[in-house]
Amino acid sequence: MTKPADLFEAARAASARSYSPYSKFPVGAAILADDGAVYAGANVENLAYPEGICAEGVAIGHMVMGGGRRIRAVAVYAPRLALCTPCGGCRQKLAEFSAADAEVYLCDDAGVRETVTVGALLPHAFFTEDIG
Ligand code: THU
Questions:
Q1: Which of 56, 96, 103, 114 is catalytic?
Q2: Ligand 1 lining (C-beta closer than 6 Å)
Q3: Per-residue model confidence as pLDDT tens digits over 4-38
Q4: Which residue segment(s) compose the domain that 16 sits in?
């Protein structure tokens, strides 16, 4: 049984693998997916700054390629900022794979400090079944 504290530890471990030479702002994210597995990611920056990708996006990519399809919960940790909340783009990415009540654990060095939901982070999310 994966607990919030386990996701924090996975997010912290992931942050240590961040490639962030430009911002020097490592971030780690860890997803508990519907298959019961934990998928982690760190931000991966690029000299062409807009090409950098956030920790949450990397974790989502790992989840999809690992066979997970839905996010049950996700922890986010940034060593330089207590309570690093996902950026706007990441909120949209998380919403794609989450129910509105999926939990987001905002962490500091001691562990999970605040729990919010994907729905609270992105109210009135863009959604339609009438596309494609
Ligand atoms: N970053 C993330 O990885 N996730 C977030 O939700 C916020 C920002 C990264 C992007 C960039 O590499 C660095 O943090 C500074 O913005």
A1: 56
A2: 20, 23, 25, 27, 43, 45, 52, 54-56, 86-87, 90
A3: 999 999 999 999 999 999 999 999 999 999 999 99
A4: 4-131
Q: Which CATH number is 32's domain given?
A: 3.40.140.10
Q: Domain tally for the chain? A: 1
Atom of ligand 1 nearest to the CA of 58: 3
- Measured CA to CA, the distance from residue 48 to residue 11 in angstroms comes to 26
Average pLDDT, the chain: 97
What pLDDT score was predicted for residue 128?
A: 85
Contact 90, 120 (CB under 8 A): no
Longest dimension (CA), the chain: 45
56 counts as catalytic:
yes
